[in-house]
Amino acid sequence: MIQTPYRAVFFDLDGTLLPMELEEFLNSYFTAIGTYVAAQGVDINSFKKGFKKGIESMTAHDGRRSNAEVYWEAFFSENDPEVIDWDNILACFYEHEFGKIGDTYVSNPAAAEALTELQEKGYPMALTTMPLFPLRAVQWRLSWAGIDHEVFDRITYYENSTSVKPKLAYYQENLDAAGLKPSEVLMVGNNTKEDLACLDLGIDAYLVTDNLLNPNDFDIDSVKHGTFDEFLAWVKTWVRCSHPCQGIQPGLVMGNQG
């Protein structure tokens, strides 16, 4: 049986815990939200401009504010904040319409089983997914994967994050939230650019190859890698976590922002 150095495990979502073709999902998402807001009388061209500008701002800003703050500032530079009740309308979209996007997704049972195995062995877990969405959208995607969001001590989303992958600041703020050193964490993901950026901080990684994305031609043989079934088999060899981290902060962490 293996005694790991890990005090917590971080997981990516899209393409890792949730089998999906990312481009197909994003196209479905953009179409659904555009159709929805247009039905509320919103000018679709202004909405698309603001939506795109908001996403670009979240990926480019300096990390001194939450991604949500930056998004809405950029969005409202192209849209009238008074034209509709944006908070209510979009909350309704994410509560109802967004969930329908996942009707055709098929979960990988190995993902839920691996999380159960880790939970039973006392390993705290964080969902370190790209924080460009509201929390409800992340919870929906977990449900499509057959996973209860409550297994995670921390879930990254646009209101509790100040950076995005593959920036090292994103991984650092999650280490800070957990009070951990890089060597005490395993990051599990499927994207060699976004998820394996963590290696530059000294975080260990396992690359899931079922829905592998390798935009930077990374040598996957240089890291732990395999299918999710193989990851599950590995996790089953671990012994109980000897020193789990305590008190992972679920909210915004600004301690290291300059």
Kindly list the characteristics that best describe this protein:
258 residues, alpha/beta, Rossmann fold, 2 domains, six-stranded parallel beta sheet, 39% helix, globular
**Overall pLDDT:** 96
Name the CATH class of the largest domain. Alpha Beta
> What is the CATH third-level topology name of the largest domain?
Rossmann fold
Strand adjacency order, main sheet: 3-2-1-4-5-6
- Overall, the morphology is globular
| Beta-strand proportion | 5-15%
Number of helices: 8
Task: Tell me the number of structural domains.
Answer: 2
Cα-to-Cα separation, first versus last residue:
43 Å
How big is the Rg? 18 Å
**Structural class of the secondary structure composition?**
alpha/beta
Give a written overview of the molecule.
This protein is α/β, with parallel strands linked by helices. It has two domains: 8-20 and 106-235, HAD superfamily/HAD-like (Rossmann fold); 23-102. Helices cover 39% and strands 9% of the residues. Strands 3-2-1-4-5-6 form a six-stranded parallel beta sheet, with helices on both faces. α1 (22-39) packs across α4 (86-100), α2 packs antiparallel against α3 and α5 packs parallel to α8. The longest helix has 18 residues, at 22-39. It is globular. It starts with 7 loop residues before the first strand and ends in a 23-residue tail after the last helix. The mean pLDDT is 96.
In short, what is this structure?
The protein is α/β, with parallel strands linked by helices and 258 residues long. The chain has 8 helices and 6 strands, in the order E-H-H-H-H-H-E-H-E-H-E-E-E-H.
